[in-house]
Structure formats: structure tokens, C-alpha cells
Amino acid sequence: MRSKIKKQVWIWRGFLLVTPIAIALVLSLRALGFLQLSELFVYDQLLQLRPSEPTDQRIVIVGVDEIDIQKLGKYPISDRVLADLINKIRQQKPRAIGLDIVRDLPVEPGYSELAEVFKTTPNLVGVRTIKSGAGAIAPPPILQAQGQVSAAELIIDNDGVIRRGFLGADLGQNQPILGLGLYTALEFLNAEPNVPYPEAVQSPNYFKSNDGGYIGAEDLGDQVLLNYRRSKFRTVSLREVLNNQIPQDLFSDRLVLIGVTAVSLKDFFSTPLDRNFGTGFTQTAGVEIHAQIASQILASALDGRRAIATWSEPWEYLWITTWAVGIGIFTWKLRNFRTAKQFWLANLTITTLSLGAIALSGYVAFTLSLWIPIIPPMLGAIGTVLSMTAFIYVDRLKASEQGYRRIADELRIAEANYRSIFENAVEGIFQMATNGKFLSVNPAFAQIFGYASPQDLINHIDQTTASLYVSPNCLTELNLQFSQTQSDEISGFEYQAYRSDRTIIWIRESVRIVRDADAQILYYEGIANDYTKAKLAEASLKRELEELKIEIDEVKRQKQVAQITDSDFFKDIQAELATFTDDDDFEL
User: SS3 for 165?
Assistant: First the structure.
């Protein structure tokens, strides 16, 4: 059992070593905050990519824009103008009025008129800041005395973007204060006969300092992640209201926020919706951001629109780890591909699909108002793939090095064996350049030609320009045979050669051509034997055969003569000749 475990550990050694390191590195980078900006940037893009929602008709903004300031001729606007504005708004009986304009000191003329409006408008709320120091905003004294003051705080991230909404805080000594958005939303809901989702207000998804991609973020008071609407709120100008250029029921039964929308007044901030690709730099008025907070609360309580939630840290760690482990397993299994091209193609495909799946999962989750990590699992996947690939590459290099060492050892052994065969062979072995110069010969070759050593033979040929060949056309004949056979190997090539004592011997060789990568001839190599005795024996045998043939021919002739003289025909002729001879003798 233990041996099986060790075997499995060895088989998966790369995965078991690399994957935990890659996971630990990504989690450490995230815990130290190095990934925060990238995760927040992705959060902004997800907000922009979500499907558009209808405009929230429950909220109307009255903005003091640049034209209003030009027509009034100054800013801040006077108390009389402000009082006139609020009076015209409350005539249409809105549920709540939020005044996001500083009014801690009188701005004459009209202070008494404004004071009377403050005292007689119970659904009106002013603003202050809860932070002290330079730039702090004091509340309107009359509204402060009546408890109609909210916090104008906007939570700005380190990159200058507002992604969180301030709901409220405890100032101590039992002095809680609500944010402007929450205050006006609650005022609106007080007039609602039935709130379908009261838990959305009673226990919202409060933001904690390490939620989502945040690491150690300031969690002053109660905050929530802002679920921005991509649609704009209905906005009218100060002059339109004062000149009665609005519908008579525009503010009726609605939440009205009064604020400045003039760029010159610098009450503008960056939001995720202002960070679009391919568009110019834009910002959003502070009063619009308060409207987003109020709209989020109203939509959650009345429509069931979900606030943006996040996973707890253990679930986020599990999510990041799962992707790294999954792609690590696939990558490690890919190491068995035969070619590097197959490995890289499969690796690239799996990595691309994994990154796409992570991004798609993050987007789908965000459409359901759940913010899950995207950048960390992507980095974990990429880090695991790169680290695993490097490990596989190094592992293969080591294996190749070991293989090369074994091959080198084998080559050394083979070379030693070849050298031994070369040196101890009884046949002559040679390598010769195309011009007839010997590159190397073995001792047997030197002995055939009567030299004490291979070097003696080579030196003698080089220094004396002597030739081993009796015929000066020997090399030409060799090349001619190669050409005629159209082969790089010939056997049985015979020629006469000189020994060192200038005696002539017969040599018989098997020769082959050695070529380079471009098929050019490098040299000849072959095996040579002293064929003199066999050649002499062959000549002697030929002579004997010739003599035997002569003898055979003589015997054959005699046999033929005997056959003729013994025939009846020859005997009759002899008899006639004899008779003829006798008659001649008689006449004579």
C-alpha cells in the first residue's frame, strides 16, 4: 500500500508541488491588497455590462446648473430663492425632500423666509458631515434643532471612485445619524401602506472591510455596496421649478433631492459608471449619488431588487483554489503529449476556455447581484499553467539529459567497441578522400601493403606523393563503377597495388560513398583484402584448364580418327584401294 502511494505521489509530483505554491502566491497577493485595484476595476466593468434597468420614477432631482447660476448672478443662492424653491416643491406634496445644499449660515436676503420654511416642512431634511476639520459642513441650525439632519458623507475608494453608499453611523452619546439617501428613503417608506420586503431595510447586506475585492477598506459606520442603476434619474433645473415650467404632479408622492449639478461648483465624483472604455472622462454630481443610495433602498424594500452580496472569505478561497487545482490537473495530464506543438495547443485551449468560464461565471453571478472573485482565479489558473509548464519543461530537460547521458555512455561504449574492432580486424579498413588521400586506416590495412603501422602508410603516401595503385586510372575506374551501378555501394572492386617494397599485389575491396546532408561526397570507406594468392591461384587454374582443354581436344581427335578407320565404309574403301594397287602392279 505504501509503495502504491509513493508511486502515485511520484506520478503527480509536478501537480503536488506546483499547484499549492501557485495558490498560496495568489492568495498572498490578494491578502496583501496587490489585487484590489484590478478587482475593483472588474467590478466597475461588470456594473457597466449589466442589462439596463428602467428609470426609478419615485425619485426626482432638482439641480442648480450653470445656467441657473448665470441667471441668478451669484452663488450660493440666496435664502429667499431657496425658500421659494422649497415652497413650490412642497405644494405638490412630495413624500420627502432632501436638501443637499449647505445652509449653515444666513445668505440674505430672505433668511427669515427660509427659517419659516424649515420650521413648517416636517418631511424636509438638511445635511452635515460627521467628520470634523477643514471642509466640514455644519447643519442648518433650525433643522438641527428639529432633528431633521442627515449625513452628506460619500465613501471614496483609494482610486477616487465611489462604490459604497453611507447609510449612517453612531456619533456617540446616543446620537445616531443617517445618511441622506437612507433618511429620505425611510421618509418615503413611512408613507407606504405596505412594504413587501422590510428585511431589505432592517438588515441590509452591510459592507465589511474585506468584502469582495476589498482588503482592509475603511468601514466607517454602516455601508453597503452601491448597486448603481445605469439609467439616469428625472432631473429638472432650479429655473424650471421657479418659472412653473414643470408638470403639476412631477413631485407628487415622490422623493425629491435638491442639489448642485453645475460643474463649476465641483460637487462631482467618479463612479463605476463613469469609467467606460472608449469614452471621455466624466463624473457624477453628488446629489445623483445620494439618489442612487435612496433608489437602492426603495427598490430593495418595494421591488425586491437585490443588493450586491459577496461570499465569505472561505468560499472565495475555495473558489480560487478550485480553478487552480482543476487546471493544474488538466495541465499535468497534458505532459504526455508526444510533440511540443500538441502540448502547447491543448494547453492554450484549456487555459482560454478556463479563463472564459471564470469571466462568464463572474458575469452571470453579478447579474444576480453576487460579486465573486474573477481576477484571483484567473491569476491562479494562469500561474498554475505557467508554473506547471515550466516544471514539465525542466522535468523533460532532466529526463532528456539523463537520456542523452545514457546515449553518450552507449556511444562511448560503441565507439570503444568500434575502435577495438577497427584496430583488431583481420581485414583492412580504410577511409579515403576523393583525391586518393587516406584519412584513416587500420593496422590490418597497413600490413597488407607492407607498412609497420597505419601512420607509416599515411605518412609515406603524403610525403613521397607515391601511389598505391599500379594503374593511374584506378580512382577513375572506381567512380565509373559507382556511376554505372547508380549506387553508393559496390563490392568486388579489384586492382593492382604496390607494397612498400614495390612488389605488386592484387587487392579486392568493398567500397561505399559517405555523403553530407546536401548529398555531396565526403569520402569513401571500405574493406580491403589481399587477393594476390587467390588471383595467382585463379590464373594457375586457368592455365591448367587451357592445358587440359588441349589434351581433351587431342584425345577427342584421336578417338574420332579411330572411329572413322574402324567403320565398314572405310574398310571397303581400303579393300578397293588394295585391289586397285594389285592391278597396277600387274600391268607394270
Answer: strand
Indicate whether 499 belongs to any domain. Answer: yes
- Residue 72 burial (C-beta neighbours within 10 Å; 0-12, 13-18, 19+): middle
Q: What are phi and psi of 120, to 5 degrees?
A: -105, 15
Asked if residues 457 and 438 have their Cβ atoms less than 8 Å apart, the reply is yes
Phi then psi for 540, rounded to 5 degrees?
Answer: -60, -40
Residue 195 near residue 221 (C-beta atoms within 8 A): no
Domain check: are 119 and 267 in the same one?
yes
Is 337 found in the same domain as 224?
no
Tally of domains within the chain: 4
Is 331 inside a domain boundary?
Answer: yes
* Residues 229, 286 share a domain: yes
The number of CA neighbours under 13 Å toward the Cβ of 18 is 28
d(CA 84, CA 80): 6
The rounded distance, in Å, linking the Cα atoms of 225 and 211 is 9
The CA radius of gyration of the chain, in Å to the nearest whole number, is 55
pLDDT in tens, 44-58: 999 999 888 899 999
Structural domain harbouring 552: 548-587
Distance of CA 21 to the CA centre of its chain: 19
**Cα–Cα distance between 30 and 373 in angstroms, integer?**
10
pLDDT tens, position by position, 117-160: 999 999 999 999 887 666 788 899 999 999 999 999 999 999 99
pLDDT digits (tens, 9 = 90+) for 299-308: 999 999 999 9
Cα–Cα distance between 9 and 187 in angstroms, integer? 65
Distance of CA 584 to the CA centre of its chain: 132
* Residues 147, 19 share a domain: no
Q: What CATH number does residue 475 fall under?
A: 3.30.450.20
